[in-house]
């Protein structure tokens, strides 16, 4: 009897491994706006849904690292759904307090760039499979806001 369950488990595992799943790409991280207490960046994620029906997104979790250390993390709960048989653009807002950015001043060069890594977890609810998380990350440089951008 145990052999039967092992065979059944292996069969289901093999079939599920070959099921087409949504694919995602974290394409860009841009400066969005600055206020007196924080700076907001936007992570742009393109998600391809291979199914002919929309798929609900449970949440998007994010971690922003600068100079190798975590400076902010959070979640975007219930950000909507993926369009059926299409590519959906998701924008993930990441709000960073000025006090946190000021601790990173030693990494800032003359051009006001700072090295970053944005790590995202896109959790979707797939039929039969259940919650499925697509891990994404992007490294690069982002501009710190200048005084003129604070008053623009």
Helices, strands, pairings?
Layout: H1 2-17, E1 23-34, E2 38-48, E3 55-66, E4 69-82, E5 87-97, H2 98-102, E6 113-126, E7 130-143, H3 147-151
Antiparallel strand pairs: 1-2, 2-5, 3-4, 3-6, 6-7
Report on the structure:
The chain is α+β, with helices and mostly antiparallel strands and 152 residues long. It has three helices and seven strands, in the order H-E-E-E-E-E-H-E-E-H. The protein has helices spanning 2-17, 98-102, 147-151; strands at residues 23-34, 38-48, 55-66, 69-82, 87-97, 113-126, 130-143. The strands form two sheets. Strands 4-3-6-7 form a four-stranded antiparallel sheet, with no helix packed on it. Strands 1-2-5 form a three-stranded antiparallel sheet. It is elongated and about 65 Å long. The termini are far apart.
Q: How are strands sequenced across the largest beta sheet?
A: 4-3-6-7
SSE order, one letter for each helix or strand = HEEEEEHEEH
Based on DSSP secondary structure assignment, what is the total number of beta strands?
Answer: 7
Which residue ranges are poorly predicted, with pLDDT under 50 across at least 5 consecutive positions? none
Rounded Rg: 20 Å
Instruction: Give the helix tally.
Output: 3
- Please bin the fraction of helical residues: 10-25%
Assess the beta-strand content as a share of residues.
Answer: over 45%
Main sheet specs: 4 strands, antiparallel
**Mean pLDDT figure:** 83
Task: Give the CA-based shape.
Answer: elongated
